[in-house]
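Can't paste images in this forum, so I'm doing it all in text. The chain is below; anyone willing to post the predicted structure tokens underneath?
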Amino acid sequence: MAKIVCENCNTSFLYSAVKNIVTCPVCGESLWDNEGAGNNNVQEESEDGLMYFDEIMIFKDEPEYNNVCVYCDECGNDNSLEVDKFDKLVDKEYVILKEDITLTCRGCGKEHKPRKILYKRKDSYAPPLPRCPLCNSAMLKKIKTSSKVLAAATLGAFALPYNSKTFECKNCGYRF
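Text version of the structure:
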């Protein structure tokens, strides 16, 4: 999917949204060259070595630890860069690297070509926590297999309702 980047204000637009517009809706400058139909500032989104950032960490008490967390879209490797390597920081939108800084992924070795790094939240793979269906508490205890075996040996068929449960709520005691 192609994007158009205004050279004056560095705002990016989808090509399909601005293909019929002559001037930038943000700053009013021309989006195209003098011919009016050229696409000299179209960037392909599937560009090699594209990196995104997902967090800007600012520590007021310890400014030496201020950084921007970036990750490679190709391999998913995390990198962090000091805040002083950037010209402009716009949280939840984009950051712009200084002119003399080059950004290379530590995992796959690809170089990030544009100076502008867009915000894109990194996919998290943490499964959701189970919750108690009665009180909605996340404070649960897993019922051990040894406890189920002991109940089956002691009570026999009467332990079946207990053995079919997996969790016990620490808050209300409900087993599910």
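The two ends are 47 Å apart (CA to CA). Helices lie at 15-18, 145-155, 160-163.
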